[in-house]
């Protein structure tokens, strides 16, 4: 038989490693085999080392830029300085207080945005009149920069947490609503018909058929919504510094105001780490959906 | 129970338009089992969709009982639910209490011989298994009117024979009205009280005849074979006008 | 608004300021409890910090604060935008603290031709001062950034980055940015104090909402008393004051300010209760002259009667608007 | 026959009006009938009046707030003032120059972001190693506020247009990449298998199968990416005011710096109108896809 | 041409695991037409997927010619392409120049009797039409090995007969090797050189026999009927062990 003949040989077990939920369009994806449990730690490591490598590369490029001194040290902070700063910060109450305050606001703001986004999204997707009236407004609102809302926020809520929440919600809810609308719009008509035929009407049709069917798109919208809410929050925290409530947004701005390069980078690292953490949560949700729907067998 | 009067359905506009059904009239009396045969693309699925109220005719009037249960040509299972979840959903929507629901689901899954697969998801099933889950889900609707679009198309002969018996038992017991689309003329002769033949595009009523073979019938009985041969001849005649 | 009497008969005074060197009077007054002391037990002091003038003015307009320390620019804006209704300047706070810092090679105005010079904001006091100064030295600069000298208005922190990266050749900026540019290798070409009579011009003043002033003159008077006391402290104990400022800013930002930087900038600042009305008015006139501001009527901006009462009680010379 | 019997009656033509691409989950959606051409203008009007109504309602609430004088006019600009300001602005060269400059930057920045986002998105979705290394970094990067990048932008590009573009691309590309990744991840395995079987390998598999199959999600990602790029641009335009180049971002900031409420609202209206225009373009793309895929028959 | 040696395929792990194929061995010589019959869920689709290289066996070795063409049990058409686009895609991927491609597509669409629907999209077709498009697309691959999973399951008897003739002509002309899954035992007897019967879960080789009826055959000829009856009996026996 010639060389380009397809030959599939496998002995027990060592099927292609699905690599902790990572999908690839090679035989490994299309033909997953059994994955023994005892490989857990090995696959954890398999998922970790590329991240560490990427991190190492970034640090290396950065350090080289510092070594070559193509910019003076006050213009370009070194990794050592930045991490020293981070380490120092991490020892202060102020730092943890900032992180907690901001995380609390982020979660609350995100939840509010999700609530508003879902209601608006489903309402617009469902009610013809609303869609015609405000459908195209949603993307337009999304493009409005946070600072444009500051006067209105202060007008409505004075210098309170609510003003910050207002900025966050108005920044993130449209994005989530858009995810919901996109999801609802792309529900396969066959599933809709099937749902209607088996007796799902009105709210039930939404709850039992349309919502689960649009879950992938909704999760994607939530992810984008998180990014919007976080960025709006960073802006909103500049709006009001409530007495005794330090925050990451304020820290970021102060570091910038003071041209404190190591401090700025230290805060950026904190933001990145939180972002990575949140992405992990979304990653789990995403993979759970994919596994249940049989889109990956990992 | 089902009354179809001068119903037409055209898809698209202008020169591209396809007329799937053309002034079709058909009545199905309560408890009757009507089999529809016709060439591929003659409008059978369109007709069932109209009767189920999932599509609106371009012209004409359709009356059907409340909530006719439609078994689609494709399985149309919900990928996010398990087999049991799919079969149980119509019951859940009717607010059947949990113990009753679970018992009913188990019974239906036993009927379609899939008890072992209650916890699997649709993507883990074979084509024929999916079709059987869809059948169980349709039966779970407990509707007095059943619309079935090639419900046994993906099944092997044996499983099909068993399900023929089951379906016959259920329809007789509950006096269901059935509109049953099939490509298998023997199947039509085995199950139907009446066989309706649609013409090729546009779908018109070409011929119909009642099946006078006494029940219980067997699919390989000489009477069924003879009737099937007769209908096949008529069908062949019809298709021959269009193809080739 | 919360400025109304609460059931207990307590008035709330909401005071705003920036965590910034030019707001040293406010920071010291808050840190050392001077405002609280003068306001007495019947008034509750609530403080907020802003990071720039516009937010402070938004808060004033929206009845979210009652009094704020701000620079001359937002002051004029707030007065003009509300057609003289919203605010009154009731006291000065600080003067000076602005410099024109350039790259070391530049020693003469003529060398500025074709250079890029930053200012904090188009039409603000520093921007106007630079343009006016350039005009006096026979150099042109258009609003759009053209002419002999390219004036680029941008955020102060961006200016420092841009200076570090040689993207600009100099900047006319307030403290602490001027010091920071010097620390980054810049050279002071002009100390703005030298351009003004008595080397004094307003950089921070205390502003109050007009209707709050009308309703609570006594409270405002006590606030002014606090401000006067704060400046007295600042001038009497510069070391202590600098420490208090460093700590006060540290509390708000998480990072105490570098004492050396404070000390360097401190020299260019003067803390005075005189709002130096003349400098504000002539600043506005200059702005009109270089075509950056419509003629604004500033009559009624100052209400210094309470200040003068306080000063008199303290045996100090009075100021005029 | 009883009252709850299903009866479908229709005479020719008057099938439920699909209402200019608007989907609803009533019979109108599931059972579209023929739509005669001569109804074009009527359906245009049907799509327009709800928008006008919504606009009218917003204006009414706003005007009532102004009439009740719950805030003095300098804190809350009246609609009349704001539109007068807009009208005045619209007569100036400065205004149109700003709009053109910003639109040019927005388009260029968006195109760059799309390029980067697509390359990164497909690369990460395809290459296991890259996904493990930088996959979760993408969402983290998305959450980084634009101002954090200013020092780096100046370091790399000084005060040039490129610095603005850098801020825009780093703000928008992650969002687009996420859309691409979500799309690729949810391609039905059956279509993938079919593609492989009919001989699509490597790039061809991407170009002919995966990309078109993930188009809906990609378009959703592009929409979110546009919002991100626009907001980043508004921030980036504060970074650099290039000689003789007024911009909307600078105008917005200028209005805020001067507490110019009517000016701020006028600029917001311009941003909204541009957003509406862009949404219309996305809406067309979206509806074209839906129609071709048979998800709506409108 | 196709060699399957001791191939097993298990889905899932632990107590949930389903063994679809269990140490199955089968050889198909070049130009041979092998029909596979078996109960629903016995592993037929899994086998074809393995032979096509879209899945990897848990154990065992499979060898097949280069790029076997697989016609899936579902149509698996690309929704964003028209009928002509779907059929033409394999040609495009092989870089067949445009005129040749268009001619070939037209020819293939004529073969499956869908020339009028070249410009339609999959969602505008009936179930049987989609299946025929899938058939045309598979034939467009011009692979020497054809793997077909119930290719005519959704077609009426007449259209199916016509396509039987077409398929026989094509395979004979080009000497194609075919592995053909069907539930219709008559169809197997009509088309196959050999019939292979798989046992129910797990799929094992239960029985095989060559079809010695000379070609051309007719599906309603007595020889075909007799053989079909024989295979049906064996199948019935097999299924009876599992069901009921
Ligand atoms: N949504 C649609 N848009 C356009 N044309 C359609 C649509 N649905 C069906 N048709 C057309 O209507 C005709 C009848 O389709 P239908 O699905 O009813 O056929 P069928 O009798 O069920 O065929 P089969 O036996 O192949 O399933 C076909 O020609 C088809 O192309
Ligand atoms: N992806 C999967 N995950 C888990 N189980 C699977 C998967 N694919 C198939 N199976 C199981 O493997 C068995 C064989 O499936 P297969 O699709 O090969 O059956 P088949 O012979 O083609 O049946 P049919 O005639 O009904 O199409 C079934 O029991 C099914 O549940
Ligand atoms: Mg059909
Ligand atoms: Mg199968």
TrEMBL record, chains A, D:
<comment type="similarity">
    <text>Belongs to the binding-protein-dependent transport system permease family.</text>
</comment>
<keyword id="KW-0812">Transmembrane</keyword>
<feature type="transmembrane region" description="Helical">
    <location>
        <begin position="163"/>
        <end position="184"/>
    </location>
</feature>
<dbReference type="InterPro" id="IPR000515">
    <property type="entry name" value="MetI-like"/>
</dbReference>
<feature type="transmembrane region" description="Helical">
    <location>
        <begin position="264"/>
        <end position="285"/>
    </location>
</feature>
<keyword id="KW-0472">Membrane</keyword>
<dbReference type="Pfam" id="PF00528">
    <property type="entry name" value="BPD_transp_1"/>
</dbReference>
<protein>
    <submittedName>
        <fullName>NitT/TauT family transport system permease protein</fullName>
    </submittedName>
</protein>
<keyword id="KW-1133">Transmembrane helix</keyword>
<dbReference type="GO" id="GO:0005886">
    <property type="term" value="C:plasma membrane"/>
</dbReference>
<feature type="transmembrane region" description="Helical">
    <location>
        <begin position="137"/>
        <end position="157"/>
    </location>
</feature>
<dbReference type="InterPro" id="IPR035906">
    <property type="entry name" value="MetI-like_sf"/>
</dbReference>
<feature type="domain" description="ABC transmembrane type-1">
    <location>
        <begin position="99"/>
        <end position="282"/>
    </location>
</feature>
<keyword id="KW-0813">Transport</keyword>
<feature type="transmembrane region" description="Helical">
    <location>
        <begin position="106"/>
        <end position="125"/>
    </location>
</feature>
<dbReference type="GO" id="GO:0055085">
    <property type="term" value="P:transmembrane transport"/>
</dbReference>
<feature type="transmembrane region" description="Helical">
    <location>
        <begin position="44"/>
        <end position="65"/>
    </location>
</feature>
<keyword id="KW-1003">Cell membrane</keyword>
<feature type="transmembrane region" description="Helical">
    <location>
        <begin position="205"/>
        <end position="222"/>
    </location>
</feature>
UniProtKB/TrEMBL annotation, chains B, E:
<dbReference type="GO" id="GO:0005524">
    <property type="term" value="F:ATP binding"/>
</dbReference>
<keyword id="KW-0813">Transport</keyword>
<protein>
    <submittedName>
        <fullName>NitT/TauT family transport system ATP-binding protein</fullName>
    </submittedName>
</protein>
<dbReference type="GO" id="GO:0016887">
    <property type="term" value="F:ATP hydrolysis activity"/>
</dbReference>
<dbReference type="InterPro" id="IPR003439">
    <property type="entry name" value="ABC_transporter-like_ATP-bd"/>
</dbReference>
<dbReference type="InterPro" id="IPR050166">
    <property type="entry name" value="ABC_transporter_ATP-bind"/>
</dbReference>
<dbReference type="InterPro" id="IPR027417">
    <property type="entry name" value="P-loop_NTPase"/>
</dbReference>
<keyword id="KW-0547">Nucleotide-binding</keyword>
<dbReference type="InterPro" id="IPR017871">
    <property type="entry name" value="ABC_transporter-like_CS"/>
</dbReference>
<feature type="domain" description="ABC transporter">
    <location>
        <begin position="2"/>
        <end position="227"/>
    </location>
</feature>
<dbReference type="Pfam" id="PF00005">
    <property type="entry name" value="ABC_tran"/>
</dbReference>
<dbReference type="InterPro" id="IPR003593">
    <property type="entry name" value="AAA+_ATPase"/>
</dbReference>
<keyword id="KW-0067">ATP-binding</keyword>
């Amino acid at each position: 038989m010639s060389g380009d003949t397809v030959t599939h040989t496998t002995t027990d077990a060592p099927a292609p490693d699905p690599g902790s939920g990572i999908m690839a369009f090679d035989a490994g994806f299309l033909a997953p085999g059994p994955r023994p449990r005892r490989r857990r730690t090995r696959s954890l490591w398999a998922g970790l080392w590329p991240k560490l490598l990427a991190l190492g590369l970034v640090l290396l490029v950065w350090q080289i830029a510092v070594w070559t001194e193509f910019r003076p040290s006050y213009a370009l902070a070194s990794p050592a300085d930045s991490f020293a700063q981070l380490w120092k910060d991490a020892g202060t109450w102020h730092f943890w207080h900032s992180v907690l305050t901001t995380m609390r606001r982020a979660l609350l703001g995100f939840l509010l945005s999700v609530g508003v986004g879902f209601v608006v999204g489903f309402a617009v997707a469902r009610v013809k009149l609303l869609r015609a009236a405000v459908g195209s407004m949603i993307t337009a609102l999304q493009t409005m920069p946070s600072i444009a809302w500051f006067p209105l926020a202060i007008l409505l809520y004075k210098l309170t947490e609510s003003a910050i929440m207002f900025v966050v919600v108005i920044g993130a809810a449209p994005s989530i609503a858009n995810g919901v609308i996109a999801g609802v719009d792309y529900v396969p008509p066959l599933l809709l018909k099937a749902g209607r035929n088996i007796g799902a009407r009105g709210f039930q049709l939404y709850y039992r058929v349309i919502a689960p069917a649009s879950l992938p798109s909704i999760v994607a919208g939530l992810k984008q919504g998180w990014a919007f809410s976080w960025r709006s929050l960073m802006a909103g925290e500049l709006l009001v510094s409530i007495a005794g409530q330090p925050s990451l947004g304020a820290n970021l701005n102060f570091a910038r105001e003071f041209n404190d390069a190591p401090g700025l980078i230290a805060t950026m690292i904190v933001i990145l780490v939180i972002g990575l953490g949140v992405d992990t949560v979304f990653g789990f949700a995403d993979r759970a959906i994919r596994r249940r729907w049989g889109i990956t067998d990992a | 129970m089902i009354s179809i009067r001068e119903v037409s359905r055209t898809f698209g506009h202008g020169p591209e338009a396809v007329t799937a059904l053309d002034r079709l009239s058909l009545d199905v009396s309560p408890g009757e089992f009507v089999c529809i045969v016709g060439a591929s693309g003659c409008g059978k699925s369109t007709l069932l969709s109209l009767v189920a109220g999932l599509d609106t005719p371009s012209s004409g009037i359709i009356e059907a009982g409340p909530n006719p249960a439609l078994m689609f040509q494709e399985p149309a299972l919900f990928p996010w639910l398990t087999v049991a979840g799919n079969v149980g959903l119509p019951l859940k929507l009717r607010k059947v209490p949990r113990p009753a629901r679970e018992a009913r689901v188990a019974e239906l899954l036993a009927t379609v011989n899939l008890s072992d697969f209650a916890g699997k998801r649709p993507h883990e099933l074979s084509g024929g298994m999916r079709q059987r889950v869809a059948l169980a889900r349709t039966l779970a609707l407990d509707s007095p009117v059943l619309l079935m679009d090639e419900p046994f198309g993906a099944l092997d002969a044996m499983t099909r024979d068993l399900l023929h018996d089951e379906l016959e038992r259920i329809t007789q017991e509950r006096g269901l009205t059935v509109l049953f689309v099939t490509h298998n003329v023997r199947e039509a002769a085995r199950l139907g009280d009446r066989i309706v033949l649609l013409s090729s595009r546009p779908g018109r009523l070409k011929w119909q005849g009642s099946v006078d073979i006494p029940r219980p019938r067997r699919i390989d009985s000489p009477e069924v074979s003879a009737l099937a041969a007769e209908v096949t001849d008529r069908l062949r005649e019809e298709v021959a006008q269009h193809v080739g | 608004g919360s400025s109304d009497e609460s059931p207990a008969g307590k008035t709330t005074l909401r005071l705003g300021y920036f965590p910034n060197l030019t707001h040293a009077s406010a920071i010291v007054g808050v840190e050392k409890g001077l405002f609280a002391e003068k306001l007495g037990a019947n008034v509750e002091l609530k403080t907020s910090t802003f990071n720039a003038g516009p937010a402070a003015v938004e808060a004033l307009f929206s009845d979210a604060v009652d009094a704020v320390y701000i620079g001359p620019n937002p002051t004029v804006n707030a007065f003009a935008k509300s057609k003289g209704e919203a605010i009154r300047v009731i006291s000065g706070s600080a003067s000076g603290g602005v410099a024109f810092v350039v790259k070391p090679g530049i020693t003469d105005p003529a060398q500025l031709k074709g250079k890029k010079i930053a200012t904090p904001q188009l039409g603000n006091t520093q921007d106007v001062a630079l343009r006016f100064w350039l005009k006096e030295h026979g150099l042109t600069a258009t609003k759009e950034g053209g002419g002999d000298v390219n004036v680029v208005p941008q955020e102060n922190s961006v200016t420092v980055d841009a200076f570090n990266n040689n993207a600009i050749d100099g900047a006319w900026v307030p403290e602490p940015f001027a010091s920071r540019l010097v620390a980054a290798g810049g050279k002071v070409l002009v100390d703005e104090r030298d351009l003004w009579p008595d080397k004094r011009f307003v950089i921070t003043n205390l502003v109050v909402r007009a209707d709050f002033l009308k309703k609570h003159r006594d409270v405002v008077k006590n606030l002014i008393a606090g401000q006067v006391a704060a400046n007295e402290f600042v001038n009497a104990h510069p070391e202590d004051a600098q420490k208090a400022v460093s700590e006060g800013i540290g509390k708000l930002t998480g990072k105490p300010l570098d004492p050396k930087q404070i000390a360097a900038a401190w020299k260019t600042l003067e803390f005075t209760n005189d709002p130096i009305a003349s400098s504000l008015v002539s600043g506005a006139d200059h702005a009109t002259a270089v075509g950056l501001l419509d003629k604004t009527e500033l009559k009624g901006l100052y209400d210094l009667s309470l200040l003068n009462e306080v000063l008199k009680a303290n045996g100090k010379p009075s100021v005029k608007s």
